[in-house]
Amino acid sequence: MVVIDIIIFTFEDDVLKVLLVKRKAPPFIGKWAIPGGFVRKQESLMRAAERELREETGVRAGYLEQLYTFGDPKRDPRGRVVTAAYFALIPRGKMKVRGASDAADARFFPVRKLPSLAFDHKKIFLYARTRLQNKIQYTNIAWSLLPRAFTLGEIQDLYETIWGRRLDKRNFRKKLFSLGLLKALPKMRRGLRQRPARLYAFKKKTYVELKRFFS
Amino acid sequence: MVVIDIIIFTFEDDVLKVLLVKRKAPPFIGKWAIPGGFVRKQESLMRAAERELREETGVRAGYLEQLYTFGDPKRDPRGRVVTAAYFALIPRGKMKVRGASDAADARFFPVRKLPSLAFDHKKIFLYARTRLQNKIQYTNIAWSLLPRAFTLGEIQDLYETIWGRRLDKRNFRKKLFSLGLLKALPKMRRGLRQRPARLYAFKKKTYVELKRFFS
DNA sequence: TCAAAAGTGTTGTGTGTACACCCATGT
DNA sequence: ACATGGGTGTACACACAACACTTTTGA
After folding, report:
1. Where are the domains of chain A?
2. Considering chain A, what percentage of its residues have pLDDT values greater than 70?
3. For the segment A125-147, what is each residue's pLDDT rounded down to a tens digit?
4. In this predicted model, what pLDDT tens digit does every residue of B57-112 receive, in sequence order?
5. Is there a contact between A179 and A125 (Cβ–Cβ < 8 Å)?
6. Binary contact (B2, A45; C-beta < 8 A)
7. Cβ–Cβ contact A42 with B under 8 A
8. Residues A178-193: what's their mean pLDDT?
9. Using a CB cutoff of 8 Å and minimum separation of 24, what contacts does A150-156 make?
10. How far apart are CA A6 and CA A100, in angstroms?
11. B71–A45 CB contact, under 8 Å
12. Which pTM does this prediction carry?
């Protein structure tokens, strides 16, 4: 039997979060799990992942890619269930999380404060987090985690959070501008008790692969 | 239904080659295809790939990783067959290719001279080739394609073949030595009508991930 | 003696990295 | 006034890229 699971990341309150659903059907009833479901006949794996993402969050895309396929014969107590895991990136605020049919509840958890997970979902989550950490080094996918307009401080926070280390502000901005993918907006973020920050947006929301992004 | 397919690469006669089997069962009888087979009960996907690799080539490992899972509902005329594709790298000369149970014949084809392939195997092959091209940029997996002892000319030929462009001999060697992974052997490759070349081997056959390997 | 690949250093350029101070706002 | 992040430029180190000639062998 083939199912899909989606690890859905978002970036909110300066932390990386992942969507979990509480299982209301056996096995692992009451445990938190990565959202997923069956693949319908006449539906490709990617379509199934897109559908599941829409059902769970109400959003269309952001970024979605196949992560890895887990097929250990003992990963599901009911018998062999092969899962094609996908991972998705969603900008904050866009989605309206709702529990899907087989979930009593659904919410985002900071990746540093995850509850214990059903099945081998801990392993799947760790695989996804590693992929995200690696991939932001040579692509711009992390930008799918940002809202339309953002400050340079926000994007730097995002990178620092995912990498888990501090970056030099001047070097970060220099590199960012040198890529030529940002446009400055004629607006500032005001209302905080500090100097207003310039807002930026992406020229196009295209996926770019780079030799080396930030190291 | 879940099956696995393995794209097995080797490097021989200065070209990159891939193993294909001729189908002797329907569908696509008589057509060349990427070797693969069913996953047994109580066998993980990776174990199934290892078994299949052994059955097809007689060798144990070299390098083996999961590539991508293809699940288009129309990819197999018999109905939905999801295939977890793996890709493997094998040093030349080690393997004794033999046709497996569902293949009338099996042999290596240069990647530039492939016949037409069954199913969506062309797409799978292209995906594998791209992965190989990308991955040799930041890992040392290509070294699984080389025999125990090799000359610097051979390893450079390998990189030039996979990338499809020429590299500067001095810069290539400088970078290679700077990694500190090679040891010079007290032997030379003789018998060719040219100056003998020093033979080298890897200090250990470990997988190394680098920030940037060759650009 | 000739063809063929082996072997070997230096220099310029670009990119990454380290580093410190003033600015504009809200409270 | 002060706390908070916003915003800005220079100097050094290092890695990559370009480049040409001599050596050793087999035929």
Report:
1. 2-117, 141-202
2. 93
3. 999 999 998 888 888 888 899 99
4. 888 778 999 999 999 999 999 999 999 999 999 998 877 766 555 555 899 999 99
5. no
6. no
7. yes
8. 93
9. A150/A199, A150/A200, A150/A201, A151/A189, A151/A197, A151/A198, A151/A199, A151/A200, A152/A176, A152/A197, A152/A198, A152/A200, A153/A197, A155/A200
10. 13
11. yes
12. 0.91
Architecture per CATH, domain B141-202, reads as: Orthogonal Bundle (1.10)
**Does at least one atom of strand D sit less than 7 Å from the CB of A167?**
no
Side chain identity at A65, as an amino acid letter? E
Tokens of B103: 């293949």
Of the listed ranges A64-78, A146-160, B79-93, B193-207, the one predicted with least confidence: B193-207
Query: For C18, which residue's CA is nearest its C1'?
Result: A168
Q: Which amino acid is at B99?
A: G
A109 sits in which H/E element? strand A103-110
Question: Residue B95's pLDDT is what?
Answer: 73
Fold annotation for B2-117: Nucleoside Triphosphate Pyrophosphohydrolase (3.90.79)
Burial category of A82 from C-beta neighbours within 10 Å (exposed 0-12, middle 13-18, buried 19 and up) = buried
Both tokens assigned to B3? 């099956």
Decide which of B65 and B134 is more confident: B65
Q: How far is the CA of B161 from the C1' of D27 (A)?
A: 29
Q: Which amino acid is at A66?
A: Q
Please judge whether B43 and A73 are an interchain contact, meaning their C-beta atoms are less than 8 angstroms apart.
yes
- As to burial, measured by CB atoms within 10 angstroms (0-12 exposed, 13-18 middle, 19+ buried), residue A180 is exposed
